[in-house]
Each structure stands twice: as C-alpha cells, then as structure tokens.
Amino acid sequence: MARTGENIYKRKDGRWEGRYIKGHSQEKTQYGYIYGRSYQDVKQRLIKLKAGQEVQHTLSFRGKSRNAPCFSQIAQEWLGRSQGNFKESTLVKYQNMLNGYILPKFGNITLDSIDRNMVCHYTEWLTTFGGRKKTGLSAKTVSDNLSLLKSILNYAQENGIKVNEISFPRSFHRHPKPLRVFQESEFRVLCGYLKDHMCPSNLGIMLCLFTGIRVGELCALCWGDISIPDKTLYVHRTMQRLGILGREGTKTKILISDPKSDCSRRLIPLPKVLIDELSVIRQPPDTFFLTGSPTKFTEPRTMQNRFKAVLKSCGIKDANFHALRHTFATRCVELGFDVKSLSEILGHANINITLNRYVHPTMEQKRKYMDKLDQMAGLMGL
Q1: pTM, entire model
Q2: CATH of domain 68-177
Q3: How far apart are CA 266 and CA 271, in angstroms?
Q4: What are the residues whose beta carbons fall under 8 Å from the beta carbon of 236, sequence distance 6 or more?
Q5: What is the mean pLDDT of the segment spanning 283-288?
Q6: Which CATH superfamily is domain 184-363 in?
C-alpha cells in the first residue's frame, strides 16, 4: 500500500518502489521508477531526483523572462539595503544562510520562475539533507531559511518585480533532539569537582549551572555586573565569534554586543552557594569575569573546550556547554519554580518556549494531581 501522496509502494518481493513523473508525450504522462530495500531510502532518493528536476525545469524556462533579474541579484541588493536595520550578527547569519543554502538552489533562477512547488521541494531538502552532516536541519533553522527567502521575495515585489504568490509551508516533519540533562549523580560529581578545583573557568561553569546563563553571556560578563551585597547578576551583553563580511584573509572576529533580544537583558538573583565562592575571588568591576583582566577575555569556543575537559576529568559522558542551561531549567521545574519566573531567569521571549522545552510532567506528577479529584469527590460524598 502506498504512503499517502508520495507514490511509494511496498512490492510483493519485499522491496520498496517509488514512482515519479519523467515527462509527457502526446498528452500521456511518462513515469520513472526507483527501487530500494527501505521506505526511507526510496523517499530520500525521490526527494533528490525531484529537486533536481525542479531546478532543471526552472532553468529551461529562464528565456521566458529575459528582463527579470535572477534571485542572487535581488538577494544581495536586499542584504545591502538592510545594513542599518539589523545587528551585525544578524547580517552575518543571513549571509551564511544565503551562501550555504538559498543561493545554491535559487541563485541563478529568475524571480518569476520561483513557485510553491519549488519551495516545497527546497523545504523537504533542508529537512532531509541540510546541514554539514547531510542529516537534515532543525525545524527552527528550516523556518529561518524560509523566512529569509520570503523576505527577499517580498522586497522584490515591493520594488515592482514580478513574483509569484506563494504560500510557504508552516510545518516541518522533524522531531526535536532530546535535551542533554545531567542526572543527579552527574550533577553531584560535577559540583564536587568544581568546588575542589576552583578557578575562574570552573567558577564560570558553576555559575551557568546555577543560573542558566548562556556561554556567550558568561564570556562577556564583567565583575561589575555582579552585586554581592544585593546577591544579583546583571546580564546585558553577549560574546560571539562572527564571520567578517566582504573581507579576505581573516575570516572571523569576536563581537561583544547587546543580547539578541530585550528579554535576554535580565537581573538574576544569586543563590548562597555562588555568593560564597564569588566573595573569595572577587576582582575589580571593570575586568572580565573569566580572566580578571580589563582587556583579555575568554571566548566561547575556548570555554566549551575547557568544559569538555572538566567532564572528561569527572568521568561524565560528553555534553555540549548548553547542557548546563538545560540542567538548570530542568532542576528548577523539578523544584516547583513557577514557569513565569523561570522564563524570565532564562531570558526566554515568552513562557511558551519554557513550557514546550522543559515542562514535561512525569506519570507520578499526573497521578498526584488526579488523586486530588478523589479527595474532592470524597468531600462531596461521592
């Protein structure tokens, strides 16, 4: 039986068969066939083949719109005129998406040739084959790519260039990866190691574990952002390594800037376990937290490597630095933090992000709540 709308069937001999349209002759449709040992194998090969067909189909009709500009021209014009509207980090992100994904697919195609069918094939390609490992991009990254593509097409239309009306896909069939959260035993081992080997870097790791701040926020942190008397931490800057647009030679640079959004600028109360450690190694307010220097800093990549070395020394399974943030949020939920407070501490744009990512009640919690119905029924004499 075929998977709905995909023209993929399982044959009697156990193989999977995929059918696609090769062309038309004398008002008859000509079909081609692909065979494989699994459904996924056939599906991926069909996606590649259809994507290739779509590009060839578009290129063959470029002569119909000789005066229409190609997509790459308008994309670079849009990017140039957007210089004053976005942060430098956002512009670099857009340039990377254009160079890495959008221009290779649409760069030489005229704008009036881009239609919904082509965008759907592109979306499926991003979801299935995108990324360095060719295993597909996350739903968020796919959405960002489509949003950028849509913005450029809207810009072209606003400037009098013919563009097809396209309804962009809204859902992407991509399951999110499970969050890496340190188990209680790992948490205890890690905290013990950090306290026994206290230094600025290890205190930084401990700070992230008990506040949930991001690695870029940690690297940009200065001692003046910490108030020991008030027991607070003020997050208002972030650090990241960016590519340099329009330059040759040096490809990247360190940028210290405002957080990515207003909600990321926040004041976080500090627990006593951190205040005790911070009081011991406190440095002048105009120095970086991780170095104690007003000019020298530790960049996120270096901090990531130091964190992995700590995990190795502790005998803890490898994890990304962001696992500290996931662990903090998960522990807060377990301790009964209200979602609004946790969302503001994490710097999320809204509580839905916090709810969808971290609030997943266990069966024990659900049973506990349902038992309250029995208590209510008892009071009512039922």
Answers
A1: 0.69
A2: 1.10.150.130
A3: 16
A4: 225, 258, 259, 265
A5: 95
A6: Intergrase catalytic core (1.10.443.10)
